[in-house]
Design brief:
By secondary structure, the protein is mainly α.
Length: about 325
């Protein structure tokens, strides 16, 4: 089978088997030295032989028994040549790249999504051939080995080689013995199974009794633990209350002892600062004494005013008398 790219096959071309015989190429043992172009294109994956170029979608060419039409094949070749000619004509009208500057050169760079091999388009032709139909394989004959030796025969009368009554006796003994032995083994097995079941029932009863006793002891231990915890909690509560009572009694005794000397001193200090007073005394000090002092001040002010007025009158009279005496003397 040969694989042909979809781009190299005409759209109306049918699937054909294509295989062209070719001689084996003579390849050198060592790699060829790189040329100047290879050095210049070093690092460019377009010239890397490991990169697949062109359309990687290949189709399997299935052989067909139909013979291709030579007129149709010629028409396809003619249309392919015209397409190649039109493509070359369009390429001639494309503006070319200007010449590179001195010391530089142009490098072909592809900007398409898929890389393609940069080479001239080679005109490809399809050649096919028709193989013969498969023939059914004939049936393999039966193998019959070749006959060898001589045929001989003898006559055997009835009862010469086999006596049933004599030959069947050991067989019957074996069958009866095996049957009785198997029966005895089955009976012993049943008795052993019954004994095992009885022992198992006794063991289960003993285990159930022991389990019930263990559960009873566990429950008793749990009740004892809970009772012990309650008693300890009650004792702790009693000790706590006794401690609180002792602390209260001690605090009360200390307070009484401390207040025995504190109360008189506090009352004395409060009385001295006026917090405890006699209402009558307080009324006299706050109401009577201020009123009395105000009345005394008023009385004294009136007396002082009267004295000042009398002094003023006496001074005026004396001045007038002195003036009259001076006038009399001058006369």
């Amino acid at each position: 089978m040969a694989f042909v790219s979809q781009s190299q096959r005409a759209p109306n071309e049918s699937y054909t088997f294509a295989s062209r015989p070719r001689p084996v190429e003579n390849r050198s043992k060592y790699r060829e030295p790189p040329s100047e172009q290879t050095h210049s294109n070093y690092g460019n994956i377009m010239y890397d032989r490991r990169v697949v170029r062109g359309n990687t979608y290949a189709q399997l060419i299935i052989p067909t028994t139909a013979q291709p039409d030579p007129v149709e094949a010629q028409r396809q070749q003619e249309s392919r040549r015209r397409a190649i000619a039109r493509k070359r004509a369009r390429e001639q009208f494309i503006p070319s790249t200007p010449e590179a500057l001195q010391g530089r050169k142009h490098i072909d760079v592809q900007t398409e999504l898929y890389l393609e091999e940069l080479s001239d388009v080679i005109v490809a032709t399809d050649v096919d051939c028709q193989t013969d139909a498969f023939l059914d394989k004939p049936a393999t004959p039966l193998f019959i080995p070749a006959k060898s030796g001589k045929d001989v025969e003898t006559q055997i009368e009835e009862g010469e080689l086999f006596d049933f009554d004599r030959e069947v006796q050991p067989v019957l003994e074996v069958l009866v013995g095996k049957t009785i032995e198997q029966s005895l083994e089955e009976v012993m097995e049943e008795e052993e199974l019954a004994c095992l079941r009885a022992q198992q029932r006794a063991f289960e009863e003993l285990r159930n009794n022991e389990l019930a006793e263990v559960l009873r002891l566990q429950e008793q231990e749990r009740r004892h633990s809970e009772e012990k915890g309650r008693r300890i909690a009650q004792q702790k509560e009693v000790l706590k209350k006794e401690k609180e009572t002792a602390e209260k009694i001690a605090a009360r005794a200390y307070t009484q002892q401390y207040l025995a000397d504190l109360l008189p001193a506090v009352f004395t200090s409060l009385r001295r600062h006026g917090y405890f007073y006699d209402p009558v005394e307080k009324d006299i000090e706050n109401n009577f004494f201020p009123w009395l002092m105000a009345e005394v001040n008023n009385s004294l002010e009136k007396r002082y005013t009267a004295r000042e007025l009398l002094d003023t009158i006496i001074r005026d009279v004396t001045q007038k008398r002195l003036k009259m005496f001076k006038e009399l003397e001058t006369q």
